[in-house]
From TrEMBL:
<dbReference type="Pfam" id="PF00389">
    <property type="entry name" value="2-Hacid_dh"/>
</dbReference>
<keyword id="KW-0718">Serine biosynthesis</keyword>
<dbReference type="InterPro" id="IPR002912">
    <property type="entry name" value="ACT_dom"/>
</dbReference>
<feature type="domain" description="ACT">
    <location>
        <begin position="457"/>
        <end position="530"/>
    </location>
</feature>
<dbReference type="GO" id="GO:0051287">
    <property type="term" value="F:NAD binding"/>
</dbReference>
<comment type="pathway">
    <text>Amino-acid biosynthesis; L-serine biosynthesis; L-serine from 3-phospho-D-glycerate: step 1/3.</text>
</comment>
<dbReference type="InterPro" id="IPR050857">
    <property type="entry name" value="D-2-hydroxyacid_DH"/>
</dbReference>
<keyword id="KW-0520">NAD</keyword>
<dbReference type="InterPro" id="IPR006236">
    <property type="entry name" value="PGDH"/>
</dbReference>
<dbReference type="InterPro" id="IPR036291">
    <property type="entry name" value="NAD(P)-bd_dom_sf"/>
</dbReference>
<keyword id="KW-0028">Amino-acid biosynthesis</keyword>
<dbReference type="Pfam" id="PF01842">
    <property type="entry name" value="ACT"/>
</dbReference>
<dbReference type="GO" id="GO:0004617">
    <property type="term" value="F:phosphoglycerate dehydrogenase activity"/>
</dbReference>
<dbReference type="Pfam" id="PF02826">
    <property type="entry name" value="2-Hacid_dh_C"/>
</dbReference>
<protein>
    <recommendedName>
        <fullName>D-3-phosphoglycerate dehydrogenase</fullName>
        <ecNumber>1.1.1.95</ecNumber>
    </recommendedName>
</protein>
<dbReference type="InterPro" id="IPR045865">
    <property type="entry name" value="ACT-like_dom_sf"/>
</dbReference>
<dbReference type="InterPro" id="IPR006139">
    <property type="entry name" value="D-isomer_2_OHA_DH_cat_dom"/>
</dbReference>
Length: 530
Protein backbone atom coordinates (compact mmCIF):
# COMPACT_ATOMS: atom_id res chain seq x y z
CA UNK A 1 0.00 0.00 0.00
CA UNK A 2 1.36 3.44 -0.93
CA UNK A 3 0.64 6.56 1.11
CA UNK A 4 0.17 9.91 -0.65
CA UNK A 5 0.11 13.22 1.23
CA UNK A 6 -1.72 16.16 -0.39
CA UNK A 7 -0.40 19.25 1.42
CA UNK A 8 -2.00 22.07 -0.63
CA UNK A 9 -5.58 22.61 -1.84
CA UNK A 10 -5.73 20.47 -4.98
CA UNK A 11 -8.86 19.71 -7.02
CA UNK A 12 -10.79 16.77 -5.51
CA UNK A 13 -11.94 15.68 -8.94
CA UNK A 14 -8.35 15.79 -10.18
CA UNK A 15 -7.03 13.46 -7.48
CA UNK A 16 -10.04 11.10 -7.61
CA UNK A 17 -8.01 8.47 -9.48
CA UNK A 18 -5.60 8.32 -6.51
CA UNK A 19 -8.46 8.10 -4.02
CA UNK A 20 -10.06 5.29 -6.07
CA UNK A 21 -6.86 3.26 -6.47
CA UNK A 22 -6.85 0.06 -4.40
CA UNK A 23 -3.13 0.32 -3.62
CA UNK A 24 -3.15 3.99 -2.51
CA UNK A 25 -4.12 5.76 0.71
CA UNK A 26 -4.57 9.53 0.28
CA UNK A 27 -4.22 11.91 3.24
CA UNK A 28 -5.12 15.59 2.88
CA UNK A 29 -3.44 17.91 5.36
CA UNK A 30 -3.02 21.50 4.20
CA UNK A 31 -1.35 24.50 5.83
CA UNK A 32 1.37 22.46 7.57
CA UNK A 33 4.53 24.20 8.78
CA UNK A 34 7.97 22.90 7.74
CA UNK A 35 8.43 21.23 11.13
CA UNK A 36 5.00 19.61 10.98
CA UNK A 37 5.82 18.22 7.54
CA UNK A 38 9.21 16.98 8.77
CA UNK A 39 7.36 15.15 11.55
CA UNK A 40 5.05 13.17 9.25
CA UNK A 41 6.70 12.95 5.82
CA UNK A 42 8.60 9.76 6.72
CA UNK A 43 5.31 7.84 6.40
CA UNK A 44 4.63 8.85 2.81
CA UNK A 45 5.62 7.51 -0.60
CA UNK A 46 4.38 10.57 -2.51
CA UNK A 47 3.76 14.24 -1.78
CA UNK A 48 1.40 16.38 -3.88
CA UNK A 49 1.76 20.16 -3.69
CA UNK A 50 0.64 23.34 -5.43
CA UNK A 51 2.70 26.46 -4.71
CA UNK A 52 1.99 27.08 -1.03
CA UNK A 53 4.08 24.22 0.37
CA UNK A 54 7.81 24.88 0.20
CA UNK A 55 9.48 21.49 -0.06
CA UNK A 56 12.82 22.15 1.62
CA UNK A 57 15.99 20.09 2.01
CA UNK A 58 15.02 19.49 5.65
CA UNK A 59 11.73 17.94 4.53
CA UNK A 60 13.49 15.81 1.90
CA UNK A 61 15.98 14.57 4.49
CA UNK A 62 13.14 13.36 6.72
CA UNK A 63 11.35 11.76 3.75
CA UNK A 64 12.84 8.30 4.05
CA UNK A 65 10.18 6.56 1.89
CA UNK A 66 9.38 9.39 -0.51
CA UNK A 67 9.65 8.42 -4.19
CA UNK A 68 7.98 11.41 -5.79
CA UNK A 69 6.96 15.01 -5.26
CA UNK A 70 4.18 15.98 -7.66
CA UNK A 71 3.64 19.68 -8.39
CA UNK A 72 0.11 20.41 -9.60
CA UNK A 73 1.27 23.26 -11.85
CA UNK A 74 4.31 24.44 -13.80
CA UNK A 75 6.82 26.31 -11.59
CA UNK A 76 8.87 24.15 -9.25
CA UNK A 77 10.68 27.01 -7.52
CA UNK A 78 9.00 25.94 -4.24
CA UNK A 79 10.80 22.57 -4.38
CA UNK A 80 14.50 22.06 -3.60
CA UNK A 81 15.38 20.14 -6.77
CA UNK A 82 19.01 19.51 -5.81
CA UNK A 83 18.00 17.98 -2.49
CA UNK A 84 15.42 15.83 -4.30
CA UNK A 85 17.95 14.63 -6.89
CA UNK A 86 20.54 13.85 -4.23
CA UNK A 87 18.01 11.67 -2.41
CA UNK A 88 16.70 10.10 -5.61
CA UNK A 89 13.26 11.66 -5.25
CA UNK A 90 11.56 12.26 -8.58
CA UNK A 91 9.97 15.68 -8.97
CA UNK A 92 7.23 15.91 -11.58
CA UNK A 93 5.07 18.82 -12.65
CA UNK A 94 1.99 19.31 -14.80
CA UNK A 95 3.30 21.62 -17.49
CA UNK A 96 0.34 21.75 -19.88
CA UNK A 97 -2.79 21.86 -17.76
CA UNK A 98 -2.78 25.56 -16.84
CA UNK A 99 -1.34 27.15 -20.00
CA UNK A 100 -4.58 28.53 -21.42
CA UNK A 101 -5.86 29.65 -18.03
CA UNK A 102 -2.67 31.61 -17.29
CA UNK A 103 -2.63 33.06 -20.78
CA UNK A 104 -6.24 34.23 -20.33
CA UNK A 105 -5.35 35.77 -16.96
CA UNK A 106 -2.51 37.64 -18.65
CA UNK A 107 -4.99 38.97 -21.17
CA UNK A 108 -7.45 39.91 -18.43
CA UNK A 109 -4.62 41.85 -16.76
CA UNK A 110 -3.61 43.54 -20.02
CA UNK A 111 -7.16 44.70 -20.71
CA UNK A 112 -7.76 45.75 -17.13
CA UNK A 113 -4.56 47.77 -17.36
CA UNK A 114 -5.51 49.37 -20.68
CA UNK A 115 -8.96 50.40 -19.39
CA UNK A 116 -8.26 50.96 -15.63
CA UNK A 117 -11.01 48.47 -14.77
CA UNK A 118 -10.03 47.72 -11.13
CA UNK A 119 -9.55 51.42 -10.30
CA UNK A 120 -12.81 52.44 -12.04
CA UNK A 121 -14.72 49.64 -10.33
CA UNK A 122 -13.44 50.65 -6.88
CA UNK A 123 -14.39 54.29 -7.42
CA UNK A 124 -17.81 53.50 -8.87
CA UNK A 125 -18.85 51.23 -6.00
CA UNK A 126 -17.59 53.83 -3.51
CA UNK A 127 -20.29 56.14 -4.89
CA UNK A 128 -18.25 58.38 -7.23
CA UNK A 129 -19.29 58.57 -10.89
CA UNK A 130 -15.92 59.53 -12.42
CA UNK A 131 -15.54 59.18 -16.21
CA UNK A 132 -12.64 61.62 -16.66
CA UNK A 133 -9.95 59.85 -14.67
CA UNK A 134 -10.09 56.59 -16.55
CA UNK A 135 -9.31 57.38 -20.15
CA UNK A 136 -7.86 54.18 -21.57
CA UNK A 137 -5.94 53.01 -24.63
CA UNK A 138 -6.75 50.46 -27.34
CA UNK A 139 -4.69 47.33 -27.83
CA UNK A 140 -5.15 47.52 -31.62
CA UNK A 141 -1.99 48.64 -33.47
CA UNK A 142 0.05 48.57 -30.28
CA UNK A 143 3.33 46.66 -30.03
CA UNK A 144 3.34 43.82 -27.52
CA UNK A 145 6.74 42.55 -26.36
CA UNK A 146 6.72 38.95 -25.12
CA UNK A 147 9.75 37.74 -23.14
CA UNK A 148 9.59 33.96 -22.94
CA UNK A 149 7.81 32.32 -25.86
CA UNK A 150 7.14 28.94 -24.28
CA UNK A 151 3.68 27.48 -23.75
CA UNK A 152 2.03 30.53 -22.14
CA UNK A 153 3.96 33.23 -24.05
CA UNK A 154 3.02 31.59 -27.38
CA UNK A 155 -0.68 31.46 -26.46
CA UNK A 156 -0.57 35.12 -25.41
CA UNK A 157 1.01 36.02 -28.77
CA UNK A 158 -1.70 34.07 -30.62
CA UNK A 159 -4.49 35.98 -28.88
CA UNK A 160 -2.71 39.33 -29.22
CA UNK A 161 -2.72 38.82 -33.01
CA UNK A 162 -6.51 38.62 -32.91
CA UNK A 163 -6.53 41.99 -31.11
CA UNK A 164 -4.58 43.54 -33.98
CA UNK A 165 -1.33 43.92 -32.02
CA UNK A 166 2.19 43.74 -33.46
CA UNK A 167 4.17 41.13 -31.56
CA UNK A 168 7.89 41.19 -30.81
CA UNK A 169 9.04 37.97 -29.19
CA UNK A 170 12.25 36.84 -27.52
CA UNK A 171 13.13 33.38 -26.27
CA UNK A 172 16.54 31.68 -26.45
CA UNK A 173 14.79 28.72 -28.13
CA UNK A 174 12.50 30.57 -30.52
CA UNK A 175 13.34 29.69 -34.11
CA UNK A 176 12.65 31.94 -37.09
CA UNK A 177 10.38 29.23 -38.52
CA UNK A 178 8.19 29.04 -35.39
CA UNK A 179 8.11 32.81 -35.04
CA UNK A 180 6.98 33.13 -38.68
CA UNK A 181 4.26 30.53 -38.14
CA UNK A 182 2.91 32.50 -35.18
CA UNK A 183 3.22 35.86 -36.94
CA UNK A 184 5.71 37.02 -34.32
CA UNK A 185 8.74 39.17 -35.13
CA UNK A 186 11.89 37.73 -33.57
CA UNK A 187 13.57 40.48 -31.57
CA UNK A 188 16.31 40.95 -29.00
CA UNK A 189 15.45 41.87 -25.40
CA UNK A 190 16.83 45.34 -26.12
CA UNK A 191 14.62 45.83 -29.22
CA UNK A 192 11.57 44.73 -27.24
CA UNK A 193 12.34 47.06 -24.37
CA UNK A 194 12.80 50.07 -26.66
CA UNK A 195 9.70 49.45 -28.82
CA UNK A 196 6.98 47.80 -26.75
CA UNK A 197 3.80 49.65 -25.77
CA UNK A 198 2.83 46.62 -23.70
CA UNK A 199 5.27 44.07 -22.39
CA UNK A 200 4.62 40.71 -20.72
CA UNK A 201 7.06 38.21 -19.22
CA UNK A 202 6.58 34.43 -19.39
CA UNK A 203 9.88 32.96 -18.27
CA UNK A 204 10.71 30.88 -15.21
CA UNK A 205 12.65 32.62 -12.44
CA UNK A 206 16.28 31.59 -12.89
CA UNK A 207 19.58 33.30 -12.02
CA UNK A 208 19.52 34.57 -15.62
CA UNK A 209 15.96 35.92 -15.58
CA UNK A 210 16.05 37.39 -12.06
CA UNK A 211 15.61 41.15 -12.48
CA UNK A 212 16.00 40.84 -16.25
CA UNK A 213 13.84 43.97 -16.31
CA UNK A 214 15.44 46.45 -13.94
CA UNK A 215 16.58 50.10 -13.80
CA UNK A 216 18.80 49.94 -16.91
CA UNK A 217 15.93 48.47 -18.97
CA UNK A 218 13.28 50.87 -17.63
CA UNK A 219 15.50 53.82 -18.54
CA UNK A 220 15.36 53.06 -22.27
CA UNK A 221 11.70 52.05 -22.45
CA UNK A 222 9.09 53.88 -24.47
CA UNK A 223 7.46 56.49 -22.24
CA UNK A 224 3.94 55.44 -21.26
CA UNK A 225 4.45 51.70 -21.78
CA UNK A 226 2.53 49.14 -19.71
CA UNK A 227 4.02 45.99 -18.20
CA UNK A 228 2.58 42.67 -16.97
CA UNK A 229 4.03 39.87 -14.86
CA UNK A 230 1.95 36.69 -14.59
CA UNK A 231 5.07 34.48 -14.51
CA UNK A 232 7.23 34.73 -11.41
CA UNK A 233 7.93 37.50 -8.92
CA UNK A 234 11.48 38.77 -9.40
CA UNK A 235 11.65 38.55 -13.19
CA UNK A 236 10.79 42.27 -13.06
CA UNK A 237 12.63 44.18 -10.33
CA UNK A 238 9.85 45.51 -8.07
CA UNK A 239 11.84 48.44 -6.66
CA UNK A 240 12.99 49.57 -10.11
CA UNK A 241 9.41 49.32 -11.36
CA UNK A 242 8.03 51.63 -8.67
CA UNK A 243 10.66 54.23 -9.63
CA UNK A 244 9.83 53.83 -13.33
CA UNK A 245 6.09 54.34 -12.65
CA UNK A 246 6.77 57.36 -10.46
CA UNK A 247 9.12 58.80 -13.12
CA UNK A 248 6.37 58.55 -15.74
CA UNK A 249 8.18 55.92 -17.83
CA UNK A 250 5.68 53.17 -17.06
CA UNK A 251 2.01 54.18 -17.32
CA UNK A 252 0.72 51.07 -15.60
CA UNK A 253 1.75 47.66 -14.30
CA UNK A 254 -0.22 44.48 -13.63
CA UNK A 255 1.29 41.88 -11.32
CA UNK A 256 -0.06 38.45 -10.39
CA UNK A 257 3.17 37.37 -8.72
CA UNK A 258 5.53 38.90 -6.18
CA UNK A 259 9.15 38.54 -5.13
CA UNK A 260 7.84 37.38 -1.76
CA UNK A 261 4.35 35.88 -1.48
CA UNK A 262 2.11 36.97 0.04
CA UNK A 263 3.52 40.54 -0.06
CA UNK A 264 3.78 42.56 3.17
CA UNK A 265 0.80 44.82 3.89
CA UNK A 266 2.97 47.90 3.21
CA UNK A 267 4.25 46.63 -0.17
CA UNK A 268 4.23 49.70 -2.46
CA UNK A 269 2.32 47.85 -5.22
CA UNK A 270 -0.70 47.46 -2.95
CA UNK A 271 -1.38 51.19 -2.70
CA UNK A 272 -0.12 52.53 -6.02
CA UNK A 273 -2.93 53.91 -8.21
CA UNK A 274 -1.22 52.79 -11.43
CA UNK A 275 -0.44 49.26 -10.34
CA UNK A 276 -3.04 46.50 -10.31
CA UNK A 277 -2.49 43.18 -8.58
CA UNK A 278 -3.99 39.71 -8.13
CA UNK A 279 -2.93 37.13 -5.53
CA UNK A 280 -1.16 34.60 -7.82
CA UNK A 281 -4.39 33.68 -9.59
CA UNK A 282 -2.86 32.89 -12.98
CA UNK A 283 -3.71 29.19 -12.80
CA UNK A 284 -6.87 29.51 -10.73
CA UNK A 285 -9.71 28.25 -12.86
CA UNK A 286 -11.80 25.16 -12.30
CA UNK A 287 -10.55 23.73 -15.59
CA UNK A 288 -6.85 24.31 -14.96
CA UNK A 289 -6.95 23.00 -11.41
CA UNK A 290 -8.68 19.82 -12.57
CA UNK A 291 -6.26 19.42 -15.48
CA UNK A 292 -3.09 19.79 -13.41
CA UNK A 293 -4.39 17.55 -10.62
CA UNK A 294 -5.40 14.84 -13.11
CA UNK A 295 -2.03 15.04 -14.90
CA UNK A 296 0.06 14.94 -11.76
CA UNK A 297 -2.01 12.17 -10.11
CA UNK A 298 -1.66 10.00 -13.22
CA UNK A 299 2.13 10.32 -13.20
CA UNK A 300 2.38 9.76 -9.44
CA UNK A 301 0.46 6.50 -9.89
CA UNK A 302 2.86 5.42 -12.64
CA UNK A 303 5.91 6.22 -10.51
CA UNK A 304 4.61 4.44 -7.41
CA UNK A 305 3.79 1.39 -9.52
CA UNK A 306 7.19 1.42 -11.24
CA UNK A 307 5.63 2.15 -14.62
CA UNK A 308 7.04 4.52 -17.26
CA UNK A 309 6.21 8.15 -16.48
CA UNK A 310 6.69 11.62 -17.93
CA UNK A 311 7.17 15.25 -16.84
CA UNK A 312 10.08 14.64 -14.44
CA UNK A 313 11.80 17.97 -13.88
CA UNK A 314 14.94 16.67 -12.18
CA UNK A 315 15.77 14.38 -15.09
CA UNK A 316 16.42 15.56 -18.64
CA UNK A 317 13.39 15.29 -20.93
CA UNK A 318 13.35 12.37 -23.37
CA UNK A 319 11.45 12.41 -26.65
CA UNK A 320 8.61 9.87 -26.78
CA UNK A 321 10.17 8.23 -29.86
CA UNK A 322 13.46 7.69 -27.99
CA UNK A 323 11.64 6.46 -24.88
CA UNK A 324 9.65 3.92 -26.91
CA UNK A 325 12.85 2.55 -28.39
CA UNK A 326 14.77 2.39 -25.10
CA UNK A 327 12.11 1.17 -22.73
CA UNK A 328 12.41 -2.55 -23.63
CA UNK A 329 16.11 -2.39 -22.65
CA UNK A 330 15.68 -0.81 -19.20
CA UNK A 331 15.29 -4.08 -17.31
CA UNK A 332 18.15 -5.78 -19.22
CA UNK A 333 20.41 -2.75 -18.62
CA UNK A 334 19.75 -2.73 -14.88
CA UNK A 335 20.40 -6.48 -14.66
CA UNK A 336 23.67 -6.22 -16.59
CA UNK A 337 24.79 -3.43 -14.24
CA UNK A 338 23.82 -5.52 -11.23
CA UNK A 339 25.49 -8.67 -12.65
CA UNK A 340 28.78 -6.86 -13.32
CA UNK A 341 28.74 -5.23 -9.86
CA UNK A 342 28.18 -8.63 -8.20
CA UNK A 343 31.14 -10.08 -10.13
CA UNK A 344 33.39 -7.27 -8.83
CA UNK A 345 35.34 -8.09 -5.69
CA UNK A 346 37.29 -4.83 -5.53
CA UNK A 347 36.29 -1.18 -5.23
CA UNK A 348 35.12 0.02 -8.64
CA UNK A 349 37.17 2.81 -10.20
CA UNK A 350 35.72 2.99 -13.70
CA UNK A 351 32.50 1.98 -15.44
CA UNK A 352 32.45 1.46 -19.16
CA UNK A 353 29.22 0.96 -21.11
CA UNK A 354 29.41 0.05 -24.78
CA UNK A 355 26.21 0.34 -26.80
CA UNK A 356 26.16 -1.36 -30.17
CA UNK A 357 23.83 -2.02 -33.08
CA UNK A 358 20.33 -0.45 -32.95
CA UNK A 359 21.22 1.26 -29.69
CA UNK A 360 23.93 3.33 -31.37
CA UNK A 361 21.19 5.27 -33.18
CA UNK A 362 19.51 6.79 -30.11
CA UNK A 363 20.40 8.96 -27.13
CA UNK A 364 20.99 6.19 -24.58
CA UNK A 365 21.27 8.45 -21.54
CA UNK A 366 18.04 7.17 -19.90
CA UNK A 367 19.28 3.58 -20.33
CA UNK A 368 22.64 4.53 -18.82
CA UNK A 369 20.74 5.67 -15.71
CA UNK A 370 19.27 2.15 -15.34
CA UNK A 371 22.65 0.46 -15.81
CA UNK A 372 24.28 2.78 -13.26
CA UNK A 373 21.40 2.13 -10.87
CA UNK A 374 22.03 -1.62 -11.25
CA UNK A 375 25.72 -1.15 -10.45
CA UNK A 376 25.33 1.28 -7.56
CA UNK A 377 22.40 -0.51 -5.91
CA UNK A 378 24.77 -3.40 -5.16
CA UNK A 379 26.21 -1.35 -2.31
CA UNK A 380 23.70 1.45 -1.90
CA UNK A 381 20.43 -0.49 -2.08
CA UNK A 382 17.30 1.57 -2.62
CA UNK A 383 19.25 4.79 -2.15
CA UNK A 384 20.37 4.52 -5.78
CA UNK A 385 17.71 4.99 -8.42
CA UNK A 386 17.35 6.28 -11.96
CA UNK A 387 16.99 9.88 -10.79
CA UNK A 388 20.21 10.04 -8.82
CA UNK A 389 22.38 7.29 -10.34
CA UNK A 390 24.37 9.67 -12.57
CA UNK A 391 24.71 12.18 -9.75
CA UNK A 392 25.86 9.45 -7.33
CA UNK A 393 28.46 8.19 -9.80
CA UNK A 394 29.73 11.73 -10.30
CA UNK A 395 30.02 12.64 -6.62
CA UNK A 396 31.88 9.38 -6.05
CA UNK A 397 34.37 10.36 -8.79
CA UNK A 398 33.57 7.19 -10.72
CA UNK A 399 34.84 7.52 -14.23
CA UNK A 400 31.90 6.62 -16.50
CA UNK A 401 32.84 5.98 -20.13
CA UNK A 402 30.10 5.51 -22.71
CA UNK A 403 30.78 4.37 -26.26
CA UNK A 404 28.51 3.65 -29.14
CA UNK A 405 29.15 1.68 -32.33
CA UNK A 406 26.92 0.38 -35.12
CA UNK A 407 28.50 -3.09 -35.40
CA UNK A 408 27.59 -5.86 -32.92
CA UNK A 409 29.33 -9.05 -34.00
CA UNK A 410 26.10 -10.78 -35.01
CA UNK A 411 23.52 -9.24 -32.64
CA UNK A 412 21.10 -6.51 -33.65
CA UNK A 413 21.73 -4.82 -30.31
CA UNK A 414 24.32 -5.34 -27.62
CA UNK A 415 25.05 -3.71 -24.27
CA UNK A 416 28.42 -4.43 -22.66
CA UNK A 417 29.11 -3.33 -19.10
CA UNK A 418 32.75 -3.44 -17.97
CA UNK A 419 34.03 -2.41 -14.57
CA UNK A 420 37.58 -1.61 -13.59
CA UNK A 421 38.50 -2.60 -10.05
CA UNK A 422 41.16 -1.08 -7.82
CA UNK A 423 43.76 -3.80 -8.42
CA UNK A 424 43.20 -4.40 -12.10
CA UNK A 425 40.19 -6.74 -11.94
CA UNK A 426 37.90 -6.16 -14.95
CA UNK A 427 34.56 -7.97 -14.78
CA UNK A 428 32.63 -7.67 -18.03
CA UNK A 429 29.16 -8.79 -19.03
CA UNK A 430 27.22 -8.29 -22.26
CA UNK A 431 23.54 -8.76 -23.00
CA UNK A 432 21.08 -8.45 -25.84
CA UNK A 433 17.37 -8.38 -26.45
CA UNK A 434 16.57 -11.24 -28.84
CA UNK A 435 13.44 -10.82 -30.93
CA UNK A 436 10.96 -13.46 -29.76
CA UNK A 437 13.19 -14.68 -26.90
CA UNK A 438 13.70 -11.60 -24.75
CA UNK A 439 16.69 -10.76 -22.55
CA UNK A 440 19.87 -12.81 -22.76
CA UNK A 441 23.35 -12.55 -21.27
CA UNK A 442 25.60 -13.50 -24.19
CA UNK A 443 29.05 -12.84 -22.83
CA UNK A 444 30.75 -13.04 -19.45
CA UNK A 445 34.32 -11.77 -19.50
CA UNK A 446 35.81 -13.43 -22.61
CA UNK A 447 33.35 -16.34 -22.74
CA UNK A 448 30.29 -16.65 -24.98
CA UNK A 449 27.21 -17.85 -23.06
CA UNK A 450 23.44 -17.85 -23.49
CA UNK A 451 21.85 -17.19 -20.10
CA UNK A 452 18.45 -15.85 -19.07
CA UNK A 453 19.26 -12.98 -16.68
CA UNK A 454 16.90 -13.90 -13.87
CA UNK A 455 16.87 -15.42 -10.40
CA UNK A 456 19.76 -17.03 -8.54
CA UNK A 457 22.94 -17.86 -10.42
CA UNK A 458 26.28 -19.34 -9.42
CA UNK A 459 29.23 -18.13 -11.47
CA UNK A 460 32.19 -20.48 -11.36
CA UNK A 461 35.71 -20.06 -12.78
CA UNK A 462 37.51 -23.36 -13.26
CA UNK A 463 40.05 -25.25 -15.31
CA UNK A 464 38.49 -27.27 -18.11
CA UNK A 465 39.14 -30.84 -16.79
CA UNK A 466 37.03 -34.02 -16.98
CA UNK A 467 34.77 -34.57 -13.96
CA UNK A 468 34.34 -30.97 -12.86
CA UNK A 469 30.73 -30.67 -13.98
CA UNK A 470 29.87 -33.92 -12.17
CA UNK A 471 31.62 -32.79 -8.99
CA UNK A 472 29.75 -29.46 -8.95
CA UNK A 473 26.42 -31.22 -9.61
CA UNK A 474 27.00 -33.77 -6.82
CA UNK A 475 28.05 -31.16 -4.29
CA UNK A 476 25.04 -28.94 -4.99
CA UNK A 477 22.80 -32.01 -4.77
CA UNK A 478 24.27 -32.87 -1.34
CA UNK A 479 23.61 -29.29 -0.22
CA UNK A 480 19.99 -29.46 -1.43
CA UNK A 481 20.52 -26.84 -4.17
CA UNK A 482 18.51 -27.69 -7.27
CA UNK A 483 20.09 -26.77 -10.64
CA UNK A 484 17.60 -25.33 -13.17
CA UNK A 485 20.11 -24.82 -16.00
CA UNK A 486 23.83 -24.87 -16.65
CA UNK A 487 26.10 -23.24 -19.23
CA UNK A 488 29.81 -23.81 -19.72
CA UNK A 489 32.13 -21.55 -21.66
CA UNK A 490 35.78 -22.10 -22.51
CA UNK A 491 38.26 -20.61 -24.89
CA UNK A 492 40.27 -23.78 -25.47
CA UNK A 493 40.24 -27.40 -24.38
CA UNK A 494 41.90 -27.85 -21.00
CA UNK A 495 42.22 -24.09 -20.42
CA UNK A 496 40.44 -21.55 -18.21
CA UNK A 497 36.66 -21.86 -18.33
CA UNK A 498 33.49 -20.58 -16.68
CA UNK A 499 30.32 -22.31 -15.60
CA UNK A 500 27.09 -20.48 -14.90
CA UNK A 501 24.33 -22.31 -13.09
CA UNK A 502 20.81 -21.08 -12.49
CA UNK A 503 19.58 -22.49 -9.20
CA UNK A 504 16.23 -22.42 -7.47
CA UNK A 505 17.17 -20.66 -4.24
CA UNK A 506 19.69 -18.55 -2.37
CA UNK A 507 23.13 -20.11 -2.06
CA UNK A 508 24.76 -19.54 1.31
CA UNK A 509 28.43 -18.85 1.96
CA UNK A 510 29.05 -22.45 3.10
CA UNK A 511 27.99 -23.78 -0.29
CA UNK A 512 30.28 -21.30 -2.09
CA UNK A 513 33.20 -22.22 0.22
CA UNK A 514 32.60 -25.95 -0.40
CA UNK A 515 32.58 -25.35 -4.16
CA UNK A 516 36.02 -23.70 -4.15
CA UNK A 517 37.42 -26.70 -2.28
CA UNK A 518 36.67 -28.89 -5.33
CA UNK A 519 39.68 -29.78 -7.52
CA UNK A 520 40.28 -27.43 -10.49
CA UNK A 521 37.65 -24.97 -9.25
CA UNK A 522 39.15 -21.48 -8.81
CA UNK A 523 36.30 -19.17 -7.83
CA UNK A 524 32.56 -19.39 -7.06
CA UNK A 525 30.28 -16.37 -6.72
CA UNK A 526 26.54 -15.97 -6.28
CA UNK A 527 24.76 -13.47 -8.55
CA UNK A 528 21.14 -12.64 -7.78
CA UNK A 529 19.01 -10.91 -10.38
CA UNK A 530 15.48 -9.93 -9.46
N1 LIG B 1 0.80 33.05 -12.40
C1 LIG B 1 0.57 31.76 -12.37
O1 LIG B 1 -0.28 31.27 -11.64
C2 LIG B 1 1.33 30.86 -13.28
C3 LIG B 1 2.62 31.15 -13.60
N2 LIG B 1 3.31 30.32 -14.42
C4 LIG B 1 4.69 30.65 -14.73
O2 LIG B 1 4.77 31.11 -16.06
C5 LIG B 1 6.07 30.85 -16.56
C6 LIG B 1 5.99 30.30 -17.97
O3 LIG B 1 5.29 29.08 -17.98
P1 LIG B 1 5.23 28.18 -19.30
O4 LIG B 1 4.99 29.02 -20.47
O5 LIG B 1 4.30 27.06 -19.01
O6 LIG B 1 6.70 27.64 -19.30
P2 LIG B 1 7.58 27.21 -20.58
O7 LIG B 1 8.70 26.43 -20.03
O8 LIG B 1 6.72 26.61 -21.61
O9 LIG B 1 8.12 28.61 -21.12
C7 LIG B 1 9.12 29.35 -20.51
C8 LIG B 1 9.97 29.93 -21.62
O10 LIG B 1 10.88 30.86 -21.07
C9 LIG B 1 12.03 30.82 -21.88
N3 LIG B 1 13.15 31.46 -21.24
C10 LIG B 1 14.00 30.99 -20.32
N4 LIG B 1 14.94 31.91 -20.03
C11 LIG B 1 14.66 32.99 -20.79
C12 LIG B 1 15.27 34.26 -20.94
N5 LIG B 1 16.35 34.59 -20.24
N6 LIG B 1 14.71 35.13 -21.81
C13 LIG B 1 13.62 34.80 -22.53
N7 LIG B 1 13.01 33.61 -22.44
C14 LIG B 1 13.52 32.71 -21.57
C15 LIG B 1 12.24 29.34 -22.11
O11 LIG B 1 13.08 29.09 -23.22
C16 LIG B 1 10.82 28.87 -22.34
O12 LIG B 1 10.49 28.82 -23.71
C17 LIG B 1 6.73 29.93 -15.54
O13 LIG B 1 7.56 30.69 -14.69
C18 LIG B 1 5.59 29.43 -14.73
O14 LIG B 1 5.96 29.05 -13.45
C19 LIG B 1 2.73 29.23 -15.00
C20 LIG B 1 1.43 28.91 -14.72
C21 LIG B 1 0.65 29.67 -13.78
O1 LIG C 1 -0.75 26.44 -8.12
C1 LIG C 1 -0.92 27.59 -8.51
O2 LIG C 1 -1.99 28.17 -8.50
C2 LIG C 1 0.28 28.34 -9.07
C3 LIG C 1 0.47 28.03 -10.49
C4 LIG C 1 1.81 28.43 -10.94
O3 LIG C 1 2.33 29.44 -10.59
C5 LIG C 1 2.53 27.51 -11.82
O4 LIG C 1 1.93 26.53 -12.29
O5 LIG C 1 3.70 27.80 -12.07
Amino acid sequence: MFKVLVSDPISDLGIQQLVDAQDIIVDKQTGLSEDELVGIIGDYDALLVRSQTTVTKKIMEAATKLKVVGRAGVGVDNIDLNAATERGIIVINAPDGNTITTCEHTFAMMMALARHIPQAYAKTISGTWDRKSFLGVELRNKTLGVLGMGRIGSEVAKRAKAFGMEILGYDPFLTQERADKMGVTLASVDEIIRNADFMTVHTPLTPETKHMISTAQFQVMKKGMRIINCARGGVIDETALITAVNDGIVAGAAFDVFESEPPQADHPFLSHPQIIVTPHLGASTIEAQENVAIDVSEQVLHILRDEPFKNAVNMPPVAASVMNKLQPYFSLGEKLGSFAAQMATQAIQEIRIDYAGDLSEVDTQPLTRYILKGILARHMGDEANIVNSMHLAKVRDLNVIITSAPSTKGFTNLITVSLKGQNGEEPRVAGTLLAGYGERIVRINDYSVDVLPSGHQILISHTDKPGIIGNVGSLLGQKDVNIASMQVGRKQEGGEAIMILTVDKDVNKDVLSALVELPNLNKAQEVVLV
